[in-house]
Amino acid sequence: MIDTGMSISEAADRTGLSTHTLRYYEREGLMLGGVGRASSTHRRYNESDITWVIFLTKLRSTAMPISRVREYVDLVRLGGDSTRARLALLLEHRKTVVAQLEEMTNSLAAIDYKIATYQQEVSK
Amino acid sequence: MIDTGMSISEAADRTGLSTHTLRYYEREGLMLGGVGRASSTHRRYNESDITWVIFLTKLRSTAMPISRVREYVDLVRLGGDSTRARLALLLEHRKTVVAQLEEMTNSLAAIDYKIATYQQEVSK
DNA sequence: GGTTGACTTAGAGTGCGGTCTAAGTTCTAG
DNA sequence: CTAGAACTTAGACCGCACTCTAAGTCAACC
């Protein structure tokens, strides 16, 4: 029961997620320490909650599945002993991100090629 | 009714898609000219079908929604008069691809930062 | 102190992009 | 000629990540 911190809609504004999604992430166990409550019902987000959610969005925007995010969160919750495991998980994920970037860059090149031929055709 | 070209499973091998997905794309109207049939039932894919499907996968791997892909396909079907429209569509899509690349690159930096701190901690 | 709007929960619903099933037909190797 | 693998269709089903609903509670302003 705390009275500091921001409401869920403020947190939504800060993170770019919807209030629905913030509740969903919490239900899915992604919130590390559990979000505080004011008057024992309304959520109160503090700055470190926001920082955490923003990091979650980085994982998500690199297409890490929710289930993998949860694995990571569980490791963070374990604390210092899990550092190697967290490192391994992120290094593993890093590979997939690099692969995605490569694939996308490749596809972009193909699209750009098509664009160039259309531009040729249009300017004839 | 043609007897040249490859079966759907060969086409699947060539494109990296499943036979299910190839049929699904055809049903969704993404196949441009319609895939030929041998003995009026079995599909026969020729080289330009394969080239086309591979281009489709480039659009998809840059997160173009199926509905947008279909718009593009419809324009291609219209032929030369639609060049400007196709150009506009691809240029529009290009923006989203660049934005995705930027976001992913950004997120990768955050992940790399985390990796670096874990590596520090592990090597202490 | 009342009303209006934001919040709560559990659980249902949605949209996307496939993916699979069932029942039947066709091809191919022996 | 026949067995079995590969193919056909229409349509049902799936997993993911939200997104929304309903019914009720709480807060903030006039």
What is the compact description of this entry?
The structure is a homodimer. Chain A is mostly helical.
Derived from helix and strand composition plus strand pairing, the structural class of chain A reads mainly alpha
Question: What oligomeric state do the depicted chains represent?
Answer: homodimer
Main beta sheet of chain A, described?
A: 2 strands, antiparallel
Q: Biggest interface between protein chains, with counts per chain?
A: A-B, 33 and 33 residues
Task: Write down the overall geometry of chain A.
Answer: flat
Average pLDDT level of chain A: 95
Distance between the termini of chain A: 70 Å
Strand content of chain A: under 5%
List the strand order in the largest sheet of chain A: 1-2
Query: SSE order of chain A in H/E notation?
Result: HHEEHHH
Question: What's the helix count of chain A?
Answer: 5
Q: Give me the Rg of chain A, rounded.
A: 20 Å
Low-confidence stretches of chain A: none
Portion of residues within helices of chain A = 55-70%
The count of DSSP E runs of length 2 or more, i.e. the number of strands of chain A, is: 2
